[in-house]
């Protein structure tokens, strides 16, 4: 094994370790990239100024509009109370007796409607807290249900989802958000049924063992006068979601146009709250910067990895892996998503490096590029949720739970099951 290949693994290990320890990936990613460059016998300064920064800036140029408008859309839905009104309507319809479903379903609907999973976590947790208290279930089980609903199939597998993990493969394979609907449905079944069964089993087990709800002394429920909102306010949460999905998939509009449509509908339906509309747009705009910079930093790391000599060896090993190119792609995306702790970042690195080769091979053997699209999307939602993942850390921080208390359910439903599903789909298709 040559020293530059060793350098790639050393850099990946450092990236995972430092991110897991809570250090900002904005400085961790370039530092680890320079370790890779040094062991690859490249000029460190040139690698940083050229390779790293070109990778980072290229990702920002390509995806900033989607990140920006997605963050604004989510914040407008959050601050106007539209997302919460919709969630409360669904919870009222489902009831506390089906506590797991009452948490999972609103999460899925919101993420399928294009709302950032980070926004969903903040919106759903207070309601999930009340639901699990009413159902007398341990609150340490709540993060697993939120993660399954927000970080799962509606992010990667449901046909037409506007989440960025379903949009990135389009630029490499010339596909649409509805790519490979049969595989998408198969993925939903492979991840959705066992994931939901696991959460329900965990709830039944807790009841059988006599473990119930214990109040969190750190959590303070917000006091808000919901009576000031009209009875139909839940529609202001539903119609923007429908607008985004329909514009993207039925009218084939760009994600920018689709998100603008959702924002406009939400604003029009909340004109009575006109004083908070501009502040919510500003907060969303500010929030989009940290989100895209974290992901772009990880992509910059991958750009340095691509130019060291050892990457050619790694690429050859991936392309010559036994089985189809779908299996090779599933492994590559899972590994890099896990290494970076980012579904979109890991997938971007993998497809930038290997996407053209996968596409050429698919055309050579007569395989539909749509299958490559869907495998990449589903695989990005596997190992990305290792303990150092930013969304996982945010969720546990909001829930005031430790990894020891709650990460097990998150890992099973959003890491292990999607990993297994992506590999099975790659082998079968």
What is this structure, in a nutshell?
The chain has 429 residues and is an all-alpha fold. The chain has helices spanning 3-20, 25-39, 44-79, 82-94, 99-112, 117-134, 142-150, 153-156, 164-173, 181-208, 235-249, 255-269, 274-307, 310-319, 325-340, 343-365, 369-380, 390-399, 403-428. The radius of gyration is 21 Å and the shape is globular.
Provide tags for this entry.
mainly alpha, globular, 19 helices, 429 residues, 76% helix
Average pLDDT confidence is: 91
Head-to-tail CA distance between termini: 33 Å
As for the number of domains, it is: 1
As residue ranges, the low-confidence spans are: none
Largest sheet descriptor: none
Number of helices: 19
Percentage beta strand: under 5%
Structural class determined from secondary elements: mainly alpha
Cα shape: globular
**Radius of gyration computed on alpha carbons:** 21 Å
Helix content: over 70%
What does this structure look like?
This protein has 19 helices and no strands. The protein has helices at 3-20, 25-39, 44-79, 82-94, 99-112, 117-134, 142-150, 153-156, 164-173, 181-208, 235-249, 255-269, 274-307, 310-319, 325-340, 343-365, 369-380, 390-399, 403-428. Helix 5 packs parallel to helix 7 (142-150). It is globular, with a radius of gyration of 21 Å. The relative contact order is 0.16.
